[in-house]
Amino acid sequence: MMSGNYTSIDNQNVTGSVPAVSDPPGQVSVKFTESTLQTFPPSGAQGKISGGSGPPRDADDTFSKPVSGSDEAQPSGWFRTFTIAAYKPYFDVDTSDVLERIKDSLLPFSGSFNEKTANTPDLYGPFWICTTLIFVAASIGTFVTYVAHKLQNKEWDYDINLVTWSAALFYGYVTVVPLCLYIILKYFSAPSGLVQLFCLYGYSLFIFIPALCLSIIPFDIFRWVIAGVAGFMSATFVALNLRNHIKSAGERWFLIVAGIFLLQLALAIALKLYLFTVSV
Length: 280
Hints:
Belongs to the YIP1 family. One of its GO terms (molecular function) is small GTPase binding. Residues 1-73 are annotated as: Disordered. Keywords: Membrane, Transmembrane, Transmembrane helix. It is a multi-pass membrane protein. By secondary structure, the chain is mostly helical. It has helices spanning 95-105, 113-116, 124-151, 161-187, 194-204, 208-214, 220-246, 253-275, and strands spanning 2-3, 6-7. It has a two-stranded antiparallel sheet with strand order 1-2. Helix 3 packs parallel to helix 6. The chain starts with a strand and ends in a 5-residue tail after the last helix.
């Protein structure tokens, strides 16, 4: 059926192919070339963009390359001790955990610190406790000597050795003493962990931070009392937490615990004598 310039097909079953309709006279037909848009990605290369899934040749493929050295084997044995990755787990600790352990160090008679930190000892808290002690001890010791000289109208000079002495004392004490104790416990076949000893001794020094702050009060007897109380609490904290572990060392366990206790008291006395004994 024809209606003007349009052709319509009646509703009927059409089988076979439909013959092409020739253009009426006077009309121009537009022909489209074959396109490959029905496939993605296209199979052929067009310009710089290839048919593959990779980036263009002039694109920055830095992020698509593997990081150099990521597949290299990590050091093992004693060599791993000199890598940062070996110490990373001991600094992965929450603030709430550090505060909880500080609170336990201020309650020395509980003796449960080692059990709580047996599986997760940290070095983050001990490091910052020692670092804080260095600056607190040096600054307060300097302030005490300054006030003492000014009260007597005498000339005062700053002593830089307070910083170096404090750093050597605290860092050295929290490193050398646990290491020596670890060797002794190994000799007596007593169960012990080196990192756990570092953790225990580091937190045992926290009590000296408020003790040093209270030592600003210019009464020598009061300073001796503060040093004695801080030393006793710190020594009790370490001794009670190590007592159960050291008991397996045999009959000499009491001597080891007594030595640990007296060594902590000696630290408190050394702080008092060096930092807060003013000579004018």
